[in-house]
């Protein structure tokens, strides 16, 4: 028998809007989350929603070591406008041997520095959210989108009118658009792994995976 896989543990440093949102979302998804901030009020606001919440100055290396951060799978550096602090904390985490560091950047230059000092993933919350909002505004049919990578996404999209009454095979979604339909939500019913002869009905919501550029063609 294989060894039971350990649940992933996440730590989030900095509980501003972005950091607290990440911590709460991970906790709701069932993961163990350690949330920390130098501000006692921010820590108190999230205490009931995460596994652990502690008030700590992330610039103090010994404090971070005492929390055993190198044993966490991912540490998110979500420190707000303090560019110097986010860079120094990323350096400390790298030296401690944290397996994966995700750091929030305020701009491109900040992002480049974070990568240089050891961040495995750099995110630009304001820019990325702006991009997602723009996509949502121009895609009338799109309900939700999960980015799997820079190029691929899983989307929930209302079946375009031109496909209603056709089977998945006739719609040629895979052949023409390279899109795979994982499921169809039809009112209260969910059709998982629909077959090629499944006929699309008005109001069907397709859960589909594909390249972003091909998904956009399909939505238009």
Radius of gyration: 21 Å
CATH superfamily of the largest domain: NAD(P)-binding Rossmann-like Domain
Q: Total number of β-strand segments?
A: 11
Strand coverage percent: 25-35%
Number of domains: 2
Q: Which stretches are poorly predicted, pLDDT < 50 over at least 5 residues? A: 1-5
Q: What general form does the structure show?
A: elongated
CATH topology (level 3) name of the largest domain = Rossmann fold
| Average pLDDT, all residues | 85
Give the ordered list of helices and strands.
EHEHEHEHEHEHEEHHEEEH
CATH class of the largest domain: Alpha Beta
Order of strands, main sheet, comes to: 3-2-1-4-5-6
Structural class: alpha/beta
Helical coverage, percent range: 25-40%
Enumerate how many helices there are, as a single number.
9
Task: Write a structural description.
With 220 residues, the protein is α/β, with parallel strands linked by helices. The protein folds into two domains: 9-124, NAD(P)-binding Rossmann-like Domain (Rossmann fold, 3-Layer(aba) Sandwich), CATH 3.40.50.720; 139-219, 2-Layer Sandwich (Alpha-Beta Plaits), CATH 3.30.70.1450. Helix content is 36%, strand content 26%. It contains nine helices and eleven strands. It has helices at 17-28, 40-46, 61-66, 83-96, 108-116, 125-138, 168-171, 173-177, 212-219; strands at residues 9-13, 32-37, 52-55, 74-77, 101-104, 121-123, 142-147, 152-158, 180-186, 189-192, 205-211. It has a six-stranded parallel beta sheet, with helices on both faces. Helix 1 links the parallel strand 1 and strand 2 (32-37). The longest helix is centred in the middle third of the chain and has 14 residues, at 83-96. It is elongated and about 65 Å long.
